[in-house]
Amino acid sequence: MAMITLTIDKQKVAVKEGTTILEAAKQLGINIPTLCYLKEINVIGACRICMVEVQGARTFVAACVAPVAEGMVVRTNTAAVVKARKLVLELILSDHPMECLTCVRNQNCELQRLAEAFGLTEIRFQGATTDYPVDDSSPAIVRDPRKCVLCRRCVSVCAEVQTVRAITAQERGFKTLIAPAFNQGLSEVACVNCGQCALVCPTGAIHEKDDIDKVWAALADPKKHVVVQTAPAVRVTVGEALGMAPGSIVTGKMVAGLRHLGFDKVFDTDFTADLTILEEGNELLQRVNGGGTLPMITSCSPGWIKFIEHFYPDLLPHLSTCKSPQQMFGALAKTYYAQKAGVDPADVFCVSIMPCTAKKFECERPEMNSSGYQDVDVVLTSRELARMFKRVGINLAALPVEEYDAPLGISTGAGEIFGATGGVMEAALRTVYEVVTGKTLDNLDFEMVRGLDGVKEATVPVGDLNVKVAVANGLGNARKLMDAIKAGTADYHFIEIMCCPGGCIGGGGSPIPTNTEIRNKRIAATYVEDKNMPLRKSHENPAVQALYAEFLEKPLGHKSHELLHTKYTPRGQYPEQ
Predict the structure, then answer these.
(1) Where do the domains of the chain lie, and which CATH numbers do they carry?
(2) Which of 32, 43, 192, 220 could form a disulfide with 306 if both were Cys (CB 3.0 to 4.6 A apart)?
């Protein structure tokens, strides 16, 4: 590719043809401010915060969309450029509610940071403001149009990455609104609750529904026996929300922090991730040997489940009937655990800490009550847990390392890697191989299914059968595999689909920012955790073995089907008229 030489702020730089001024400036260490820009996803030049002077141009140009040209001379920080950017910022803020102190994004808001950087102390423009109502119809996500800056990042992620297209721009000019069609509530449309929109929103216009007060109330109720489970990805993400470096592993300190909050028992979703592998692995073998529907597709990700219910309901028989590890845990907490602990299951209050907003929707599904109660009472995201820690002054870094409680806190490295894309597949292969062959795997690392590639494929010899598998990273890539199944060209045995890019480590409830670099650091930390575990195969988990011996009897048995398996709901793409 041809190289282009240009000058930016009196510095020469050579870049590839097609590079934008914004990216060229970064190579020189020059930071041009942006608001709407989202690398490779939202490159539309809508906000104009990134304006620069280009010699010979009649007007300022948006650096995020303007390609470089040979001999171009760019100035990024002249008095006129700074004045124009500040003017644009003032106009945006003139239609923005000044609720920073009470906003969920206070001190982590890109608009707030820009206002500080430009030294804004007053807004010169007064006049009409938009006053659209807050949409809190979804159990997972809240949409507050008053705080929207019309950057369209959420629209791009929803359409281009997840291919859901639940939200788009409505109206024109001053009345422009980012919302579902006809300004319906998120609960009324084919939103899958993945929260990727909230993850890229620069302000508090879209955020997770806050359920912290429900947990405080349960912790304060002396009649409640409050247990908590933490998802695999949380231990490598929640530290970021408390000022630690991306990929920091805080497992034992997080356990100590949860005990400080007052939970009666601190358990691990990795336990039921291991259990999921036993159930799902046996289900796969049953389908392969018994002529069941293939390829079988994982069912751990609730955003993915809602996606297939809306967009490919005819393919629902391909889903594993296993509940997600979160919901398996809830069912066992109010049956097996309550029985062992001598606690009335009516008094058990089950809290989940998840990297995921869709889990909030999942726990409220009417079929998730096989314990006789709502299996999981409340789901908090990683961000909400960080806010709880902050509220009571917990310094996570200074806490001692503590262990999870038994028996639902005992897990393996296979359960831990559920948090990264490809992890469920790898965990399943570790177990299925040994169950089928009776041999010990020499190498537990199936690196061919790891990483952020869109669709990964592999063929793994398991005894006399060559098991062909695929892993889809995010819903846009899931759609490709679903279309291949419909076309009859997907000759796989097993498919893993995770709703969010990168898997759960990039879930919609993760710390902000979450980008490719940060996702990779979290994934690397996940595999470090796996390597450090004394047991790395789900079927070797002694607590899971005891669960079958004492309670469930066997994988796919009668009680397992009652508590650990479920059915799915075909849904339309459009609300019923």
Answers:
(1) 3-93 (3.10.20.740), 128-208 (3.30.70.20), 212-564 (3.40.50.1780)
(2) 192
